[in-house]
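explain this:

___
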Amino acid sequence: MKKILVVDDNREIREVITWLLEMEGYIVKGLDNGRDVASNIDEFTPDLIILDVMLGDVDGRDICNNLKHQELTAKLPIIMISASHDPQRLLRKSCHPNDFLPKPFDIQCLLDKVEFQLAS
């Protein structure tokens, strides 16, 4: 079974995404901050990360950038999520996620993006 790490400081959004993905048969772990991403990648070894751009403690774009520049995590698919609907402006900060999903999101769109990234 595929494992997904969901990082969002908004508890309701994190719980909805976690619930939706678990209903689809994924193993999901949720984090409410960016500080714990690195240690959870080592312990949980996700197949995909869903990462909020604006976390309360760390900029999600910095996390994405760091992961994409490390040999062990460079190919780990990352879907960035944000309340901003302008991914070009938002992701200018040298961050190269595999995909982007604006909040509020369409459930089927989320599931389709997850499935696509895990199949790649």
